Amino acid sequence: MPSYTVDDALVCLGFGKFQILVLAYAGIGWVSEAMEMMLLSFVGPAVQSAWNLTPHQESFITSVVFLGMFVGAYSWGLLSDQYGRRKGFLVTATITAIAGFLSAFSPNYLFLMALRSLVGLGLGGGPVLLSWFLEFVPAPNRGTWMVVFQAFWTLGTIFEASLAWIVMPKLGWRWLLALSSLPTSFLLMFYKLTPESPRYLCLKGKTNDAITVLEKIARVNGTKLPSGILVSDHQIELQKVDNPSLEEEEEDTSLLSPRKDEIEQYPNPKGMLSKVGCLSSLMMLLSPELARSTLLLWVVFFGNAFSYYGLVLLTSELNNPHSKCIPHKSQRETSQDISYKDVFIASFAELPGLLLSAVAVDKIGRKLSMSTMFFMCCIFLLPLIFHLPQGLTTGLLFGARICITTTFTVMYIYAPEIYPTSVRTTGVGTASSMARIGGMLCPLVAVGLLHTCHQTVAVLLFEMVALLSGISVLFFPVETMGQELRDNVSNLKQTNKV
């Protein structure tokens, strides 16, 4: 009797109305994370002025959010790999919405720090929604639609900058915190309508549930499932062990059968997943098949976050008329207006970055797209080792922001593609944790240099980080453009050799 996999089914069903609804839901979560990250640029200075905080205390308001995200990114990845994508983003959305709203009512600095750390913990679940959406997209369309998904981040940054520009001068930082928590609440309102990933269900051995979801996709999209029975990659591997001739016939394909002792150790998908606990999931990421990709991915995530948030901070620091490194020309009120406007305008640099990603990701591939843009970012930043006119400085930062947005977008497409379903959200979550370290260190190191008028050293630091990230991309072992997603580590062995 003929059979088909989840990938076969998704290609047959196509990208239709069902995936658009999944995209909208996951996109709201991405908007929410972008908004919560952008508001850090506005809330810190406002709270410092209201509560007479020291610069050190102000910096910790940002650091605790990244610290929470560092813990959450890994924790929620494990949760969703063990208990499902839906449970993963339910918990994270609940924590983010409640803590985000309550932080608007913080009576003092310690309460605000505690609640913002919880917000960061919830925001660490962003990779869960990313992986969930990815697992509904047919392989031929994956690159393009993942770029569209990343556009929700840009939408969030622009919306938050607009909101701050309107709300902060009249209503203050508490209203900004409260209003910024609303998008996450929409995730909770429509949670019951969300389906579980059919790929995850198939891996867990819940084939009937997976078929139910696929049939729903077929109804909404107005298409039909392939004829035959649904099988997982693991079941295909079992068939190859039982019938070696099948393996000989398909030795040129990207599937490779596991050793027989692997099949005996994990006789079914549910048994296999039950063996994957917290420690073993991490060990799997560092297994011979995945170690090179994992370690390089950590470097690139760190470098991308360090560079991205660094460029956001450079935009305000190098154009700040109240900097002690340049002559003071404006009143404080005027500088605040300019600050909101500059951040708002700089956010639009991400739009051409998204367009570049859309063109490049499925044309020249993930690796070449990322490495090229990292190197281009270095070129834009290099002149900034000198003090330049404000217009030229803004233009160079705008160009660098386009490049780093492109690498940011493609990186979040590539990362979940290189991991199998069994550890996908754990892998992306762990890499995302490395990005949070980059986010924590960036203001402490780079901005500290700018505040002490060491602009050349600060820019050279960003140059080195971006250059190292671009070189690391070149050493990734596999290009994932056009490839099907894999369910188990054993599926990756031959792919990595190709």
TrEMBL record:
Q: Where in the cell is it found?
A: Membrane
- Is the keyword Transmembrane helix assigned to this protein? yes
- UniProt-listed SUPFAM superfamilies: MFS general substrate transporter
Domain of life, per lineage: Eukaryota
Gene3D superfamilies linked to this entry: MFS general substrate transporter like domains
Q: What is this protein called?
A: Major facilitator superfamily (MFS) profile domain-containing protein
What is the organism of origin for this protein?
A: Lupinus angustifolius (Narrow-leaved blue lupine)
Concerning PANTHER family, the annotation shows: MAJOR FACILITATOR-TYPE TRANSPORTER HXNZ-RELATED (PTHR23511:SF5), SYNAPTIC VESICLE GLYCOPROTEIN 2 (PTHR23511)
Reply yes or no: does the keyword Ribonucleoprotein apply.
no
- Listed GO molecular functions? transmembrane transporter activity
Matching entries from InterPro entries are given as: MFS_dom, MFS_sugar_transport-like, MFS_trans_sf, Sugar_transporter_CS
Q: Which GO terms describe its cellular component?
A: membrane
Sequence intervals crossing the membrane:
20-40, 60-79, 88-105, 111-134, 146-167, 173-191, 290-311, 343-361, 368-386, 392-415, 427-450, 456-476
